[in-house]
Structure formats: C-alpha cells, structure tokens
Amino acid sequence: MKDRSVSIMTGGCRSLVVLLMIEDRILVWRFNRGEPAALCRIHEKYREGLLKVAAALLNDRSGVEDVLHDVFVDFAQTTGRFRLQGSLKGYLSICVANRARDRNRTTRRRESVGLNEIPAPSADVAGPEQAALSHELAAKLDGAMAELPDEQREVIVLHVQSKLPFREIARLREISINTAMSRYRYDLDKLRSILNGELEL
To answer: Highest mean pLDDT: which of 61-65, 158-162, 177-181?
Structure first.
C-alpha cells in the first residue's frame, strides 16, 4: 500500500512537471507571436526564483533588480525568433547567472548577498537566542559563498536555488556533466571547510 501511494505521488509530480513544460512551450509560442501578455506571464512565473539566483550570485545587493530587468529586456528583444531548447526556467537562470557574472566583473566587490533565503525562525517560535544564531549562521554562509569563484558559485546556486539538474547546467554552460558535478562537490567541500573553520570555538 505504501509503495503504491509513493508511486502515485511520484506520478503526480511528473504530471505537474509536464504541465509546466507545456505551459512554457505555449507561452514561448505566444511570445514569438508578439503577445505582450505572454512576456508578462513568463516574468510573473519566474521572477521570484530569478531574483533569488541573482541575489545569491551578485556581490552587490543593489544590482539584483537591475540584473533581472536587463535579462528580460534582452529576452523581449528576441520576440519572433526565440527558440527554446530545454527548460525556460533553466534558460532564464543561466541568463541571470551570465548577467550577474558580467556585473561582478565590472564592480569586483566581494559583498555577496548569498543563499540566506531560508527564513530565520521567528522569536515567538524558536526564542530570541535561536533566531540570533540562525541569522549569524546565514551571515557566515554568505561570507563563505563570497569566497568561491563565480563559476563555482554558479553551479551551487543553479543546482540548489533553481533546482536545475546537472545535465541541464552542463548543457547550458557548455561544460561536461562531470565538470558540473565536480565543481558542485568541490564547492560544497570548500564551504564546509570555511564554515567549520569559522564555527570552531
């Protein structure tokens, strides 16, 4: 009985993924026909996730909205000729990563916003000490992420934040799947060592 419910749940997840992919294909078709509502829907659908990707990759918090704006301006200019290969979410995430990398190169400041998208427990639920500890840990994670080179940080963000599979990251980044996976493993090890060094008393 338990195996059957797991397979029904897995089948439901696959169905949802297929429906989302079909919606994206229809949106791209409408976008290429010049329908402004399609671009608005794509923006609405992916905005929050793309903002998180930009925030995790940028060294300058003030540039997050600018990066997303620039990506969508560039995307809008492809109306009538855009060809989707793979997932729309993956394509847009890579565009955000590229734009963030370009912006980082021009600013070269290392004040990363990081991956602190996990909300800290509220004071009423966990107590003020736990909330303060959670904020401190998030700040240390931000600092550790800032120490990683852009190419390596991107793999973590695209895999964890955007939930892109390594195969898609490799295809979109034009690297081998082994390179994507090894960067990810190397980055996690480096983050662990940075955090272990900072958290030791």
So the answer is: 177-181
What is the count of structural domains for the chain? 1
What would the two tokens of residue 22 be? 């079909």
What does the block give as tokens for 99? Answer: 């734009």
Residue 107: domain span: 2-199
In a 10 Å sphere around its CB, with 0-12 CB exposed, 13-18 middle and 19+ buried, how is residue 11 labelled?
exposed
Q: What is the pTM of this model?
A: 0.69
CB-count burial class (<10 Å; 0-12, 13-18, 19+) for 108: exposed
**CB distance 75 to 92 below 8 Å:** yes
What is the C-alpha separation between 148 and 156, in angstroms, rounded? 10
| Lowest mean pLDDT across 108-122, 123-137, 147-161, 168-182 | 108-122
Q: What angle do CA 27, 28, 29 make, to 5 degrees?
A: 90
Residue 111 contacts residue 143 (beta carbons within 8 Å) = no
Query: Sign of torsion, CA 92 154 67 41?
Result: positive
